[in-house]
Hints:
Elements: H1 13-16, H2 37-42, H3 44-51, H4 59-68, E1 77-88, E2 94-105, E3 110-119, E4 122-132, E5 136-144, E6 154-162, E7 170-179, E8 187-200, E9 211-220, E10 226-235, E11 240-248, E12 251-262
Antiparallel strand pairs: 1-2, 1-12, 2-3, 3-4, 4-5, 5-6, 6-7, 7-8, 8-9, 9-10, 10-11, 11-12
Amino acid sequence: MHMGKTTGCVMVVAVVGLLNGCVQNAARPVNQSLVPVKTIMQDLDGYASREFTPATLPDQVQKTVVNADSQAVGFHRLVLDMTTSSTQNGGTGVSHYTSHGVYQNEGNGFVRGVTTLSSNGIQTMVELDLTYRNIYYVRGQSLSLTAANANRISESQVISHFDTPAAGHELHFSYDAGYVGQTRNFIHNETSCVFGRSFEASEINPKILGTARELDCQYSNLNGVVISKDHKVYLDKYGFAIVLGRENSAANIAFTVADFKVE
């Protein structure tokens, strides 16, 4: 989701920005058993379906979203393949990756995502998350496929402001983040987004139907400092956002939709 050590993601920093986001700036982890990556990968779908549903969220977070939005996204299952180019700030080299994301409708705008990142055809990382329409990230975990244990699950613990796309031109999400099992010392974060022009979604990929709207988001830490910016498009027919560009202190990242399927 956008989650972090000091840079904003509880993930391997060099790879995190290439995926679909994470809960920002979680506080330091409490005592919590580490789960072996090998164990998760033996039943990845089963693990995701248990750990990344609305029922796993803190009650206040779940109720805030459910009370704000009674509409589900416009699909049962969505598969999104993307190609990615990442240019490290201060460097000249460009890294190329592919990602394969599978997204499941969880009701009330909630979406469960499992995204696999690959380089040269070799899988390197898996990101698990629960989002609101892929605009706001409320729960996330990353698995480096070269590590013994997965990173801890980070999530929104308390939401203080929550806008839906029906709110109008500007959206704002204000929340405190922490690790699962944490009871205090949460870290405050802000997400602010602005809708832009509307256009035919087929411009992004011929398989995408309906209209799309530009959606530019920025993510701020507890000090109000912007730590990352996303250029997204919101697909009106599907009620789902796709990131096409990302800027942070480490890199500039461009995403291209290679394939798009809905069920």
